[in-house]
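User: Batch of two.

Assistant: Item 1 of 2:
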Amino acid sequence: MQPALSRRTFLSLAATVLPGAACAHVDPRDSHAPHATETPRPLDDGAARHLPGLELPDVALPSTAGGFVHLAKLTSRRFVLYAYPRTGRPGAALPDGWNDIPGARGCTAEACAFRDHHRELAQLGADVFAVSTQSTEYQKEMVARLRVPFEVLSDERLELATRLSLPTFAAGGMTLLRRLTLVVTDHRIEHVFYPVFPVESHADEVIAWLAAHPL
């Protein structure tokens, strides 16, 4: 099995799209669609303060590109890992009370933003990965529909969440990751964005931080 990093060029070419493609056709009833700033603003509860400086655990997570990704063994010096609760599907019912959970909405908008800025992030020396507790099969539908050019990882068994004590919440009988973004350099967490709000401009926020902190 090839390392996940070697598939980056293939994924980028396979998912080349015009900015905003696919997301413009998201069902407006889907609360994960763009314009998620109407969601209640999440507050910093301190649940991510322990993360800066931690070394990534040797956990292998299933990838939408096939196989597993060992985050602690990637050969790139720096990458961005953004965690999101869950993406919905147009027309599908959402968990009860979803719209009232601070920071829950906006997963589709966030994926589209990181997709549209993928090249800029690469130019700044950062690969991009996303992670949620949804299954790989569920994630593959989202990747295909939105033409996401980076690998989405499944922490369905909560291995990464447990090893790093990532903040989670429960909804619809599921344990979901709270939205946060890690900048990992030389296998250690260099910076944490938490809470993330608004989601639509978060990729720009990450780009600005990377530009101000070059390798």
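Item 2 of 2:
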Amino acid sequence: MTEPRALAKPSLGPASQPMDAKIDIRKSRISRFLAYRWLWIVAALAFGLDQWTKARVNARLPLGSYGVNGIPIFPGFFNIVHVGNTGAAWSMFTGKSTLLAILAVATLAAVFIWRRELGLRQTAAQICFGLLCGGTVGNLVDRLIHQHVIDFLDFHFGAYIYPTFNIADAAICVGVFGYILWSLRQPAPAGSGK
């Protein structure tokens, strides 16, 4: 006569996990979130400042306010204006706002997917990507709400007029430039032959 076999208990999923396991999972998620805290903080600050300044400009100046219709801060050098840009930096890809919105979402997804390869556990990299992500989301929100990006910082250098930009654009440029400088100073990976 054979002994009865013990039946394997069916797994009931997360609901069947003991309370300690659920707490460990929750702590693990929180610790992963906090590992990127500087990215989140800087991104939120860049996004908040960008949206606040754009809201102020939008409330104060009608769209298309440029030149004498703008607000001179340092006459002949720096003005606050209100223009809509359906393109990217320096008005490249004008009229391609939908394509640029898709590119923004793809950029954010790429940062998330390759966060380890980008070195985002390092504080300096988090700050750079916080600026990049905050600026990207700021301009993306404009494209979704206004169908253009609100640009308002207008600089003139003699006869040269620098393309009008916003806080999000500045954050993106500083973030990218900062990350390039930071990455050039990092040691070569072990086994790379350098």
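The first helix runs from residue 19 to 35.
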